[in-house]
Amino acid sequence: MPSRFETAAPTVAAAIPFRLDEHGVVQVLLITSRAGAWIVPKGGVERGQTAQGAALAEAWEEAGVEGYIVGERLGVWHTTRRGEPAVADVFPLLVERCAARWPEEHSRSRRWVSVRQAVELVEVAEVRGALERLARRVRAMLTGNAA
Fold first, then answer.
1. Domains of the chain
2. DSSP line for 7-40
3. pTM greater than 0.90
4. Is residue 13 within 8 Å of residue 86, measured between CB atoms?
5. Alpha carbon distance 100, 33 (integer Å)
6. What count of other Cβ atoms lies within 10 Å of the Cβ of residue 75?
7. pLDDT tens profile 61-115
8. Among 31, 96, 99, which residue's Cα sits nearest to residue 70?
């Protein structure tokens, strides 16, 4: 029987911004939380907004990146929103533009890292799993194998 988290509509959306470096290696963009932990951009899904739209908006506001969601969600993250349990859909965001200035630049740091480094830096197990799925999915796309 599915848990209430698995059947609940997502109220939070997260993006894992990524790019390929000059050697074809996947890099992801991490940001700091207000407490200083390394995280990925996330925020609430507002009325009339899709989870993908919310993930794109949060990536811009919190990390200063724009791009597009590629493929299906990478997983679900069980988190909290305003002190209440929440379900977050996690999406891969292929970065097309990384701005020098962005809305939350004064309250967050950002850092491009390899997937391996990101898995070591991020504390949330569900996000680490999504990072690993992203790496497998991109590798499969590059080699022409189904993910």
1. 4-143 (3.90.79.10)
2. HSPPSEEEEEEEEE-TTS-EEEEEEE-TTS-EE-
3. no
4. no
5. 19
6. 19
7. 999 999 999 989 999 888 877 888 888 999 999 999 999 999 999 999 999 999 9
8. 96
